[in-house]
Design goal:
CATH class of the largest domain: Mainly Beta
Number of domains: 6
Number of strands: 83
CATH topology of the largest domain: Jelly Rolls
Helix content: under 10%
Pfam family, one: EGF
Protein name: Contactin-associated protein-like 4
Shape: elongated
Number of helices: 8
CATH architecture of the largest domain: Sandwich
Membrane topology: Single-pass type I membrane protein
Radius of gyration: 42 Å
Main location: membrane
Family: Belongs to the neurexin family.
Length: 1144
């Protein structure tokens, strides 16, 4: 047993009955350690600690270090690396190693101790002696190991230790001249498949040998510590593992049979001679090393040499001041290049740079030589920079490595960059190696925040925590993932940027178009570009390589036509879409003239197709019929051309006919290929296989209603050890409740509504509980749907609620990273049945996998499947007087009372009018007082009162004057909207036949300019509001109005709306006997608003009081009919298209 100081007390075993004593150094600080020599290599399983007997001295945390030689220590990393703490001097605490460690020397370093005592320790180590055969290779030749002639190696395992970062480990031949090689390259293990000569390749010849790398695994394997390597063969795969890391690769067919002989690299001696080099680790921003400067006695020539390795692109390597001159030299890394700079009192005197990519974690050598007339710096013995100068003196006093002592110390040291973080070794000043062991014992120089006799570099990109192909880069303390080109986001590229279905896009208000969908969220399936057709349903459309009608001609040489269809989506994507959609369909049509399709039921089919999961199963039915029926749709409806056959085409008719329809049985979709063989001399045929179309996302609407605080759903344990994302929607009127909880022995994960304004995500992975909170400004218990997405990975935890700013908490850089849970997953409550959630949870997904809440709710008391009331949250999506209508799973927008159409009543309906075109709309029933706007039926033959009007329309024209809109009654009352001869908008009102017409005109000039104009007019009793520019009134005659009406209208009209009537929409989409159209009427997109620049003013007018005999609560008219073109819109927006031809 060795330590850093004399003992206080004496050695003692753990158990008090066996004696008193223990280890306690004279100085209590973090520079102390206790070292144990086990005499030979030993496999250690457990370390047990106890405080010093009869004292207040015990450790609360410690580090363990291991070594085979007593040098080059390696820190034990069991995630947090800290041993289990003691809480008193008597209790024995055992620290069981997850993986046993084989070592001869063990060093225990106190990190924390009882604040009311000193460092105190009794220690026992559990394990057994370890023995193995050892071979030492020098890299100059190889050893051939022959197996029995009948065997081919199925598993090869070995332990390796090396100071070199490149070399051949193993080589085996396959069939022909193919071979497989296991090699080190830059400290990483490569499995290499090559084709070439049978002799053993050199490490440098691998890349140029015409082969390719099957996989790369491990990092920093040149650290002179033992690493376990295993290569196993399982069927068509190789499993390659290094320590804890594993990779699986497909075996090339040429290597299916390996020869029963293996080559191992290097001359061999059966002992392990290890070179001893003592390294130091600069751990943080306070690290520095100070050594006295040296010069060559005879010439004054100065040489400083060192080796370093780091991940940082910047850091000070060394600095010193020159003797008797106010000059300073810095040698540092910047942009991963080596920079040398000399400054004097004026400024930069000399600047050199050399090398590149020096932050790759590999050892790099640097040599700085200073003479009387030159200065030279060399990197890795082949890249150098030289400057010829006069009178460069040798270093004065001290040389500082890595950084400078704290400000205020008596030294002349400055640092223009950051402190170096990394490892150094083989430091020499004028060919005198620095003795770091003497330095550790304070016999040489000075230092702070160094780890001596070890290189504590860690490759944070091995294994790569960046998912979905994200690129990993690192610094000394952390790593970063570049997710810019893979469709994912987050600290580890875990979460998808895209929605999982067209249904999800629709409920974000998106209209038809191409979108990327990621069907499994954060799962392994990559995003795909699809077309979303947003109608009353959200259809996902997946095309293949031939969706057009294909004609076939009869041929004597070719009896069958075969076609195979390649889909834009990959197989995994198709499978998930089919599985999670509520309905899928695909058109399959066959058009024929004397070309049969399936033939008679009792004979061999002439045609068939393949469908279902790849490569597809043979299908002998046609669209519209049942699988396996060998029928077409006409057979189900008993309307085939010939009752003796099952398809129209099998009637062998001289006339063109067809068997067409939709395939809707999900297990037979998609169509993979067709085989058509019914052609005969003189026959003609054509076929069409449409795109795959699916709607309904079963996971998006999967919901459960929790109506008791003690109710919950439970699922199997959630496995999200390194990356966990949880997303769901909720709505509630309760002020608090737990959405989700899963417990482990110590670890846990929980998401809850802490208050009406706060959602909290909390968890513990062994570093202590961590909480991430999002606070809202408006209450979240408003019975509307709110979205929650929580993510936890090895770098950070993040919580999103709706569109509020995300909350983020960083994870400890060297803390525990595995979330270890073992209980059931509780949804809507906890195992203690406390703090249960009251309300609805919907679309719950864990790491991209949807939990079926409805299925579990059907068998769970206190929980109901599904959740009504979606319009509270989504009614805002229904535009332009569209009404939100509830469905069992979701909602839809009813556009029957809107002038618009589309999924959200957002598509404008427009048409081109000529001067002879008009639409007459006649109401079937009289208006009655008892009816109100909110109670209108969906029929266009509505019952209404005329206490007021709501009129809107869009138009563009170059005609003046022009009548846009006219409504009149049998009693002489009327409303007219027109453009006068000056291009100004005018509104004419005559609401009683005993009054003169009231005319309101706009002074906005030249509305007949070919631009799109939007007008909205509202009247309630005697108050009129016109959304248009400044309005003034004019008096005109009814004869003038008649002349204007006779001119008709030439131009574009769209979005016509009068109260609940949409006459233009009815004329174009719902024509019936109440619609009269004269002249040519052509539907177009001329009324679309591609941009808007609203410049609205709202002007309110009061109509003159009606005659005293008129009751204002009574209808003003009894029957209304339209005598002219009717135009509707909503606002006075302006969009000009100068190329538009009016009336086109």
């Amino acid at each position: 047993v060795g330590d850093t100081s004399n003992l206080v007390g004496g050695h003692g075993p753990l158990w008090p009955a066996f004696g008193a004593g223990g280890w306690s150094p004279l100085i209590t600080d973090r520079n102390q350690w206790l070292e144990v020599d086990l005499g030979r290599r030993t496999q250690i399983t457990t370390v047990a600690t106890q405080g010093r007997y009869g004292s207040s001295d015990w450790l609360t945390a410690y580090l363990l270090m291991f070594s085979d030689t007593g040098h080059n220590w390696r820190q034990h990393r069991q995630e947090d690396s800290f041993g289990v703490s003691n809480s008193n001097a008597d209790t024995v605490v055992q620290y069981k190693l997850e993986q046993t460690v084989v070592t001869r020397y063990l060093r225990l370093i106190p990190v924390a101790w009882n604040p009311n005592g000193r460092i105190g320790l009794r220690l026992e180590i559990y394990g057994c002696h370890y023995a193995s055969d050892v071979a030492n290779f020098d890299g100059s030749s190889s050893v051939l190991y022959r197996l029995s002639a009948r065997s081919s190696p199925m598993a090869i395992s070995l332990n390796l230790k090396t100071p070199k970062n490149s070399g051949i480990l193993l080589h085996a031949e396959g069939t022909g001249d193919h071979s497989i090689t296991l090699a080190l390259e830059k400290g990483k293990l490569l499995l290499f498949h090559q084709r070439g000569p049978t002799h053993l390749p050199s490490p440098s010849g691998l890349s140029s040998s015409g082969g390719h790398i099957l996989t790369t695994i491990g990092s920093l394997l040149d650290d002179q510590h033992w690493h376990h390597v295993k290569l196993e063969r399982f069927g068509p795969h190789f499993n390659l593992s290094v320590d804890k890391n594993k990779q699986q690769v497909v075996i090339p067919t040429e290597l299916n049979l390996l020869k029963p002989e293996l080559f191992f690299g290097g001359n061999v001696t059966f002992s392990c001679a290890e070179p001893v080099s003592v390294a130091v680790t600069f751990t943080d921003s306070q690290s520095f090393l100070q050594l006295p400067g040296r010069t060559t006695e005879s010439s004054g020539f100065v040489v400083i040499a060192l080796q370093f390795r780091t991940w940082n692109v910047e850091g000070l390597l060394l600095t010193f001041n020159f003797v008797q001159q106010h000059r300073i030299l810095w040698l540092y890394l910047s942009d991963a290049r080596l920079q040398l700079q000399i400054n004097d009192t004026v400024g930069v005197l000399l600047h050199l740079n050399t090398g590149s990519g020096l932050n790759d974690g590999q050892w790099h050598s640097v040599e700085l030589s200073c003479g009387q007339d030159h200065l030279n710096v060399t990197v890795d013995k082949d890249e150098e920079a030289t400057a010829h100068t006069a009178g460069i003196p040798h270093p004065g006093g001290q040389v500082f490595f890595g950084g400078c002592p704290p400000t205020g110390a008596h030294h002349k040291c400055s640092n223009p960059v950051t402190t170096f973080q990394g490892c150094m070794r083989l430091v020499a000043l004028s060919k005198h190696p620095a003795d770091f062991i003497n330095m550790q014992e304070r016999l040489l120089g000075n230092y702070s925040h160094l780890q001596i006799d070890m290189c504590g570099i860690t490759d944070r990109c091995s294994p790569n925590h960046c998912e979905h192909g994200g690129t990993c880069t690192q610094s000394w303390r952390t790593f970063h993932c570049n997710c810019s080109n893979n469709g994912y986001r987050g600290a580890t590229c875990h979460s998808s940027r895209y929605e999982q279905s067209c249904e999800a896009y629709k409920h974000k208000g998106r209209t038809s178009g191409h979108y990327y969908v990621d069907v499994d969220g954060s799962g392994p399936i990559k995003p795909q570009l699809v077309y979303c057709n947003m109608s009353d349903r959200a259809w996902i459309v997946i095309k293949h390589n031939n969706t057009e009608l294909t004609t076939l001609q009869s041929s004597a040489e070719r009896k069958q036509h075969r076609a195979h269809f390649q889909y834009a989506s990959e197989e995994e994507q198709l499978a998930v879409i089919l599985n999670q959609s509520a309905h899928c369909e695909q058109e399959l049509s066959y058009f024929c003239r004397k070309s049969r399709l399936l033939n008679k039921p009792d004979s061999t089919p002439l045609s068939w197709w393949f469908g279902g999961q790849a490569p597809g199963q043979i299908q002998t039915h046609w669209a519209g019929a049942l699988p396996g029926s060998r029928q077409c749709a006409c057979a189900l409806h008993n309307n085939c051309l010939n009752s003796n056959v099952q398809c129209n085409c099998d009637a062998d008719s001289e006339q063109w006919t067809n068997d067409s329809g939709l395939l809707t049985h999900m297990e037979t979709l998609p169509v993979r290929s067709v085989v058509l063989g019914g052609s005969q001399p003189g026959s003609e045929a054509a076929y069409k296989v449409g795109p795959l179309r699916c709607h309904g996302d079963k996971s998006f609407w999967n919901a459960a209603l929790f109506d008791k605080e003690t109710s919950y759903l439970h699922f199997p344990t959630f496995h999200g050890e390194l990356n966990a994302d949880i997303s769901f929607l909720f709505k509630t009127t309760s002020s608090s409740g737990v959405f989700l909880e899963n417990l482990g022995i110590k670890d846990f994960i929980r998401i809850e509504l802490r208050s009406p304004l706060e959602v909290m995500f909390s968890f513990d992975v062994g570093n202590g509980p961590l909480e991430v909170k999002v606070e809202a400004s408006d209450p979240l218990n408003d019975n509307r749907w709110h979205s929650v997405r929580a993510e936890r990975n090895v770098k950070e935890a993040m919580l999103h609620v709706d569109d509020l700013p995300a909350a983020t908490q960083e994870a400890p850089s060297d803390g525990q990273i595995h979330l270890q849970l073992n209980s059931q997953l509780f949804i809507g409550g906890t195992a203690s049945r406390q703090k249960g959630f009251l309300g609805c949870i919907r679309s719950l997904q864990l790491n991209g996998i949807t939990l079926d809440l409805e299925e579990r709710a059907r068998i769970t008391p206190g929980v109901q499947p599904g959740c009504p009331g979606h319009c509270n949250s989504y009614e805002f999506l229904c535009q332009n007087q569209g009404l939100c209508v509830e469905k069992p799973n979701g909602f839809y927008c009813d556009c029957s009372q809107s002038a618009y159409t589309g999924a959200f009543c957002h598509k404008v309906i427009s048409a081109n009018f000529e001067s002879t075109t008009s639409i007459r709309y006649t109401l079937k029933e009289p208006f009655e007082l008892s009816q109100s706007h909110s109670a209108l039926p969906s029929s266009i033959f509505s019952k209404m009162t005329l206490r007021g009007e709501n009129i809107s329309l869009n138009f563009r024209t170059r005609q003046t004057p022009a009548l846009l809109f006219f409504v009149n009654s049998f009693y002489g009352e009327y409303i007219a909207l027109l453009i006068n001869r000056h291009g100004e908008l005018e509104l004419w009102y005559k609401l009683h036949n005993s009054r003169d017409v009231e005319v309101f005109g706009s002074n906005v000039m030249n509305l007949a300019d070919g631009c799109l104009h939007v007008v909205a007019i509202k009247r309630h009793k005697d108050s009129i509001s016109i959304q248009v520019h400044e309005v003034t009134a004019h008096k005109l005659t009814e004869q003038m109005l008649a002349r204007v009406g006779a001119l008709g209208f030439t131009g574009c009209l769209s979005a016509v709306y009068f109260n609940s009537i949409s006459p233009l929409k009815a004329a174009l989409l719902q024509p019936d006997r109440n619609i009269a159209i004269s002249g040519p009427l052509t539907q177009s997109n001329c009324g679309s608003l591609s941009s808007a620049n609203p410049q609205l003013s709202v002007t309110t007018h009061s109509l003159p009081d009606p005659p005293a005999s008129l009751d204002p609560s009574q209808p003003l008219v009894k029957t209304i009919r339209s005598d002219s073109a009717l135009i509707g819109g909503t606002r006075s927006d302006y969009y000009c298209d100068n190329d538009l031809i009016s009336g086109g």
